[in-house]
Design goal:
With about 400 residues, this protein is an alpha+beta fold. The protein has 4 domains: about 140 residues, N Utilization Substance Protein A, Chain:P, domain 4; about 70 residues, Beta Barrel (OB fold (Dihydrolipoamide Acetyltransferase, E2P)); about 80 residues, 2-Layer Sandwich (GMP Synthetase, Chain A, domain 3); about 100 residues, K homology (KH) domain (GMP Synthetase, Chain A, domain 3), CATH 3.30.300. The protein is about 30% helix and about 25% strand. The radius of gyration is 34 Å and the shape is elongated.
Length: about 400
């Protein structure tokens, strides 16, 4: 017995089912989904039939996903007979027109259905590309709308792809893919597909432009804001306001400093951030791929704050020679000089960024009377503006300590 001939597969129907599943996965509403498909098909047909200069309503697309309706038609003018000027894209002879509408007359305009398989042959490829582009536009819009409230916040993300040559990573958040540039990854870290990481959203566009090629959404793992958000997640006292983060400085991949203060005299701000058996600070360090974090106590007294910021080094005295300029000298024991400065001046630089003071670190044996002089101003004299940038930090003491091993 001869085998029953299989029915031809409806590629068009399967194509739209696949797109519907894609839209659902991406969280795109059915109305938006249908609108994007209609626009793409209309544009594709007009291009393939050379109707770009015709009225926008010359092509009609009717899509109903629930009823599985997919109808495409073109508006054509009824003519009596074919002549040398016949344009089949926009004209139809009377005899053929009456097969569609028996009441058709010469000069009427009727909708002429286009066989979907014929459509597939002439335009589906272009339509697919346009639909996908439409979806990318929607995704960008959703990112702007959905993530606008998350600007300057940290979110969890899944690594979905790594570019072997550049090291750029594609990550997924809420079914949306975003590029994490290599420069925005923590120096030294190696990401793998499937990793769950925290990223910091530094910018989200407040406006969306149809057809924009690039989404104005920037994510990073190197911003100091990520440190703050990670501690908020690990430390309930920070989240509820009992402990407050006053300042953060960071050298991504190497070391960070965070200054905290308690609004409750019964709560130890530094201890709350470190946690029992260092569990909280270890969790932050693990997320940062081993980056060390110093938690120090903030103080409204600049001299005390600078002492705290230079930890783990011991500081004997801080001298602010000119109270109108944010610069100071920090005097440390001779055996603490290299520790206070840090490897390549990092500890001093981070302390300077944390406090906003230029810090000149001096060994106790090298201190001169001039180092201890403080400029006195008459009470009525107005302060001058700070003369130097806050983050320029390490003086000739670094050179003096380079030959010494770090403590």
């Amino acid at each position: 017995m001869a085998k029953k001939k299989a029915q031809p597969k409806d590629d068009i129907k399967d194509f739209f089912i696949a797109l519907a599943d894609y839209a659902k996965e991406k969280g795109i509403s059915e109305d938006v989904f249908v609108s994007k498909i209609k626009n793409a098909i209309e544009k594709s047909l007009k291009t393939n039939m050379h109707l770009e200069d015709k009225d926008s309503e010359v092509v009609f697309v009717n899509i109903d996903l629930e009823k599985e309706i997919f109808d495409v038609s073109v508006l054509k003018e009824v003519i009596e007979v074919v002549d040398t000027l016949y344009e089949p894209e926009i004209e139809i002879v009377l005899e053929e027109a009456r097969k569609i509408n028996p009441a058709a007359e010469v000069g009427d305009k009727i909708r002429v259905p286009i066989d979907t398989h014929e459509f597939k042959r002439i335009a589906a490829k272009n339509a697919k590309d346009l639909i996908k582009q439409g979806f990318r536009d929607v995704e960008r819009q959703q990112l702007s709308e959905m993530w606008g409230e998350y600007e300057n916040e940290a979110v969890s993300a899944v690594v979905t792809r790594i570019e072997p040559k550049t090291g750029h990573a594609t990550i997924e958040v809420n079914h949306n893919e975003v590029l994490l540039m290599r420069a925005d990854q923590i120096p030294g870290e190696t990401l793998h597909v499937g990793d769950i990481i925290k990223v910091f959203i530094t910018g989200v566009s407040k406006e969306y432009k149809e057809g924009a090629k690039k989404q104005s959404l920037r994510i990073t793992r190197t911003d100091k804001g990520l440190i703050k958000r990670l501690f908020e997640l690990e430390c309930p006292e920070i989240y509820d306001g009992t402990v407050e983060i006053k300042a953060v400085s960071r050298a991504p991949g190497s070391r960070s400093k965070i200054a905290v203060i308690s609004n409750d005299p019964n709560v130890d701000a530094v201890g709350a951030c470190i946690g029992t058996q260092k569990n909280r600070i270890n969790a932050v360090t693990k997320e940062l791929k081993g980056e060390k974090v110093d938690v120090v106590l903030y103080s409204e007294d600049p001299e005390e704050f600078i002492k705290q910021a230079l930890k783990p080094a011991e500081v004997l005295r801080v001298v602010i020679n000119d109270p109108h300029v944010r610069a100071c000298k920090a005097i440390v024991p001779d055996n603490q000089l290299s520790l206070a400065i840090g490897n390549k001046g990092q500890n001093a630089l981070l302390a300077a960024k944390l406090t906003g003071f230029k810090i000149d670190i001096k060994a106790e044996s090298k201190v001169t009377p001039e180092d201890l002089e403080v400029i006195e101003y008459p009470p009525e004299e107005e302060p001058e503006e700070a003369a130097e940038e806050q983050t320029e930090a390490v003086s000739e003491a670094q050179e003096a300590a380079e030959a010494q091993p770090e403590g």
